[in-house]
Write a structure and sequence with these properties.
By secondary structure, this protein is of the alpha+beta class. It is built from 16 helices and 17 strands. A hairpin with a 7-residue loop joins strand 10 and strand 11.
């Protein structure tokens, strides 16, 4: 093409820079396409060189981790008290979501949930007494993840709370999670009023024994199969569990009716599950946990096995770096708030529920549940684009969890910290939002991208472990 021909044709632009360039060109009527390209994150050249020199071993290790994740078989086998099944659980220990955090650094929702747990356990009679005990040093705190457990939002688990017992039938490891209370003013969002404690007591004395008997009668419930079906029905099993809860209900309801002698009690139990679309969240989370834990401690693997937040810090763990946490400040979600609440009311991101994203579900599968992006004024195309971006930072695709809209393509699975740094793209998460003050509860729901700082620290720690 000659120079004259070039300037006599309509200008068409491909922009790889600031989006403001695209917006200014559009104002002039110019056709322009914005390329979503970002330069790699700047890290020490020695780290880059070390990773490059070990790339073959890293890729082999990551393929091993991916195979273990894909082969995982999470099943529900029981419902027991935390003290009886969670490894290392003891009477003065309270588990929480996210990486380790001390009382003085805990956010409002975590403190509120601990206050509620102490009242629930009978260790305190009121808020003031609970705060004194919580800050006295008598109570020990530890991450759920360090005890084969996960908890949504504040993630508080105390000794007498009933927990689901899950087994990975392929590899023999276990995971645990409390039962879901529903939305609004609930313990996991930091509420601890009399009505919150009353509901927890009902769950302990009525819901727990009823479901325990029903699960014992069934013996095993295949959660992987339920999750796979739910993805085809509009769920991503993090912020939307309507289909998964319904599928679980169909399995559990007949056995509740058979094993619970009092018809009114059976009715109350089934109505509680039926009226709580998020009930399955507390099964999808440990299903992801028990699947990913089997892929821990693979030498030279840069695959993430934990993404988690405690409302103060955002923490990640890698397969190849053992139990080390890599953390940075937890960000605020981009959210739709309930009437009467605004962004200034929100607590930074919180909860172990991003274990679903770590396993290729949640925000990674949001193309299966586009209704969720309406939380922040998004479109169905936005949901698809969020999922497509996650393929850029993962080792492979799931062989069971599939997205109908993408021609049943497997969900992006096994987050690779090296790719996160190279692509300058962090995991996309959908989440609930808690009020920053203890005692208030849920104020909205939304989405966010994980902060980069934990991944930069993780690749540095990973490089230190390489041969």
């Amino acid at each position: 093409m000659s120079l004259n021909d070039l300037f006599n044709k309509e200008l068409k632009v491909i922009n790889t820079g600031l989006i403001s360039f695209k917006e200014n060109l559009e104002k002039t009527g110019t056709q322009v396409i914005q390329v979503d390209w970002r330069p790699p994150v700047g890290i020490n050249e020695k780290i880059t060189k070390k990773i490059k020199n070990n790339l073959s071993e890293i890729e082999k290790a990551n393929q091993k981790a991916l195979k273990i994740i894909l082969n995982g078989k999470p099943v529900l086998i029981g419902l027991e008290k935390a003290i009886d099944v969670i490894p290392g659980m003891k009477k003065n220990l309270i588990l929480h979501a996210g990486p380790p955090v001390t009382w003085d650094r805990m956010c409002g929702p975590t403190r509120g949930a601990i206050i509620g747990a102490l009242i629930y356990e009978g260790l305190a009679e009121n808020t003031r007494e609970a705060e004194q005990i919580a800050s006295s040093g008598e109570i020990e705190y530890a991450p759920c993840h360090e005890h084969s457990t996960v908890g949504p939002m504040a993630g508080i688990v105390s000794t007498s709370m009933p927990v689901f017992v899950l087994k990975n039938e392929e590899y023999g490891n276990y995971a645990y999670c409390t039962m879901n209370e529903g939305l609004g003013k609930v313990l996991r969002y930091g509420a601890f009023s009399e009505e919150v404690i009353k509901k927890l007591k009902w769950m302990d004395t009525v819901l727990y024994p009823a479901l325990k008997k029903a699960i014992e009668k069934i013996e095993r419930i295949d959660l992987k199969n339920i999750i796979a079906q739910a993805l085809h029905m509009g769920d991503e099993v993090h912020n939307r569990n309507r289909a998964a809860t319904s599928l679980f209900y169909r399995i559990i309801a007949p056995e509740v009716i058979k094993t619970v002698k009092d018809p009114d009690t059976a009715s109350d139990v089934l109505n509680f599950i039926n009226g709580n679309d998020h009930f399955f969240l507390n099964l999808s989370m440990p299903a992801a946990k028990v699947t990913l834990d089997a892929a821990r401690n693979i030498k030279n693997s840069s695959v993430c096995v934990v993404l988690s937040r405690n409302g103060t810090d955002f923490g990640i763990q890698l397969s190849g770096t053992g139990d080390l946490w890599f953390t940075g400040p937890a960000p605020l979600p981009d959210a739709l708030f309930f009437p009467g609440f605004i962004k200034e009311d929100a607590n930074p991101d919180i909860g172990d529920s991003s274990i679903t994203e770590t396993a290729g579900l949640g925000g990674f599968a949001i193309a299966s549940a586009p209704a969720i992006v309406q939380f922040v004024g998004g479109t169905a195309n936005d949901a698809v684009n969020y999922t497509l971006a996650m393929y850029e930072i993962t080792v492979g695709e799931n062989n069971v969890y599939q997205i109908p809209y993408l021609n049943f393509r497997g969900t992006p699975t096994a987050i690779d910290v090296i790719k996160v740094i190279e692509k300058n793209v962090t995991p996309f998460i959908d989440t609930g939002v808690a009020h920053k003050d203890p005692g208030v509860g849920q104020v909205g729901a939304g989405v966010l991208s994980a902060p980069m700082e934990p991944f930069i620290k993780a690749i540095e720690g990973f490089a230190d472990r390489l041969n």
